[in-house]
Amino acid sequence: MKVRLTVDARIWKTGIGTYTLNLLRAMRQVDGGFRVSAIVRAETEGMISEMCDETRVVNAPIYGLQEQMRVPAAARGCDLLHVPHYNVPALYRGPMVVTIHDLTHVTDPEFRHTAKSWLYGRPMLKIATLKARHVITDSEYSKQLIVNRLGVRPEKVSAIDLGKGPQFR
User: Which of 27, 92, 150, 152 is the most buried (most CB within 10 A)?
Assistant: First the structure.
């Protein structure tokens, strides 16, 4: 029986979306003994379904209460949920990996004193690191920030190069 990996692929127009799409494409090329499911928006289902064994549509807005309810329901029954951003489903009880690309909401003077940072960004970053079994980040610098600023054990965080598209080879 194959392991069912579910990826939250609802963000797609940003760098996080590029990361997620390239991750899904690469997973299709690996025979790792797992099935890949993606949580998607309706408008991207056709594009992303080619890269997955299964898709589940969740049109809930990012950073909202709806996603906190609907993403766990869509991920129900999976063996591992990968959230490619820190907006993890706080009520999800299964195993989860999260990618935290940076700590802009904690370190950048333009963002760190905003209401969004204090009311959402900082608490969700902390929740993400507490709930996730493992944290992936883009660089050793971000890893050190996650360890030092969020109090995460170093062995729980891996700095993994995001990889480059074929156009950069």
Answer: 152
